[in-house]
Amino acid sequence: MAGCDASRDDATALGPVPIASGDECHVCGMLIEEMPGPKGEAVLPGAVRKFCSTAELFGWWLQPENRQGQAR
Q1: β-bridge mates for residue 44, sequence order
Q2: What is the C-alpha separation between 56 and 53, in angstroms, rounded?
Q3: Structural Rg of the chain based on CA atoms
Q4: How far apart, in whole angstroms, are the C-alpha atoms of residue 69 and residue 71?
Q5: Whole-structure pTM value
Q6: CB–CB of 25/49 below 8 Å?
Q7: What is the mean pLDDT of each run of 10 residues along the chain (72 residues)?
Q8: Residue 16: CB partners within 8 Å, gap ≥ 6?
Q9: Positive or negative, the Cα torsion across 19, 15, 61, 38?
Q10: How many domains are there within the chain?
Q11: Is 40 helix (H, G, I), strand (E, B) or coil?
């Protein structure tokens, strides 16, 4: 998820990070590198959530507690 937000400070904003060996899916805990297909990340203020699939990313994103408008 990416978008424009003129109020954020580019010097302190986190961006996407590479998926490294041993990274686990934020939702299911599976090792991301062992799962086939596209992966996902949600960038929050001060944190990056990694997902083993786009389905896991969107499932997480659509939960009411995660729809705060802060994730990119």
Answers
A1: 47
A2: 5
A3: 13
A4: 6
A5: 0.75
A6: no
A7: 56 78 96 96 90 96 80 65
A8: 41, 43, 48
A9: negative
A10: 1
A11: strand
Look at residue 21 in the predicted model and tell me its pLDDT: 94
Would residue 13 count as lying in a domain?
no
Please identify which residue in the block is written with the tokens 């990119």: 72
Q: Give residue for tokens 């944190």.
A: 47
38 contacts: CB under 8 Å, gap ≥ 6: 53, 54
- Residue-level pLDDT at 11: 46
Quickly list DSSP for 56-67: HHHHHHTSGGG-
CB 47 within 8 A of CB 53: no
State both tokens at 11.
């010097």
Please check whether residue 15 lies inside any domain of the structure.
no
Residues 61 and 64: their CA atoms lie apart, in Å, by: 8
Amino acid at 8: R
